Amino acid sequence: MSREFEFAQLLRAYRKGIISEKTFEQEMALLEGAAGGANGGGFTAMGKTYACERDAIVAYLQRVRNGEAAGAQALARWAEVCQTDCMRSGLRTIAEREAYHVRVIERKLSDLGAQCEAARDPEIDKFVAKQSDPNVSDLDKLRTIVSSFGKPEDIVKPIYEFVDLIKEDLDAKELLALWAEDEYSSLKWFVHAFTALGGTLERPAAPVQMGMSGAAQTH
Ligand SMILES: [Fe+2]
Predict the structure, then answer these.
(1) What is the DSSP string of 120-155?
(2) Rounded distance from Cα 211 to ligand 1 centre (Å)
(3) CB within 8 A of 90, min separation 6: which ones?
(4) Chain segment 17-27, per-residue pLDDT in tens
(5) 116 Cα to the center of ligand 1, angstroms
(6) How far apart are CA 207 and CA 216, in angstroms?
(7) Which one of 2, 53, 82, 134 is least enclosed by Cβ atoms within 10 Å?
(8) How many angstroms does the Cα of residue 97 sit away from the middle of ligand 1?
(9) 79 CA to middle of ligand 1, Å?
């Protein structure tokens, strides 16, 4: 069945009152997505071209989900062995943020008919092990995170660039914009905690591939 015929069929069903306006719009969006969406020949984001906006969002969410899951795990374990009393609840708060990000992202992936593909990454495993280690100081753990980025606003910038590209799935757009705000808040807190413990901000090293440093996942 040609796409033009499918459009005509949909329009006829809508005009006859067989389908509601909402269903019509949803079906139209699906057909447009199959045709490549607003970008015509594909959807280009993060240096890659996807068949459509939906595929780019799925790929993005799958990657973010894995980083957030690692962040949730690392921070929850760190909070358990944290030696700095005034930091413990901050770590727990951010661990909870990471964990609920995973839950809402998984729900959105499910809405999009996509799987949550958990990927193994030895670098992430190493990071989680270090942040869980009671023999590593809180200052060193904070340095590991803070030294992976320059300014919190630079980390969230690529997230907002991706958000700006989204034209059709406004639900995903809002989800990612709120996620960026949370990440920004978390990153600012890590800088605050690091300097409060006497840490000195230096030039960023290689990015840590985990939830708080969203930029590491979005490049
Ligand atoms: Fe996060």
Answers:
(1) --HHHHHHHHHHH-TTS-HHHHHHHHHTT-S-HHHH
(2) 4
(3) 189, 193
(4) 777 777 767 67
(5) 16
(6) 6
(7) 2
(8) 6
(9) 16
Distance 182 CA to ligand 1 centre (A): 7
Cα-to-centroid distance, 204 and ligand 1 (Å): 19
Q: Are 165 and 108 in contact (CB under 8 A)?
A: no
- 193: its two tokens: 């905690």
CA dist., res. 46 & res. 8, Å (int): 35
Measure the CA–CA gap between 162 and 160, rounded to whole angstroms.
5
User: What per-residue confidence (pLDDT) applies to 27?
Assistant: 72
User: What is the Cα–Cα distance from 206 to 186, expressed in whole angstroms?
Assistant: 19
SS3 of residue 35 by DSSP: coil
* CA 87 to ligand 1 centroid distance, Å: 18
pLDDT tens-place string over residues 115-154: 887 778 888 899 999 999 999 999 999 999 999 888 999 9
Q: What is the reported pTM?
A: 0.75
101 C-alpha to ligand 1 centroid (Å) = 7
The type of residue at 23 is: T
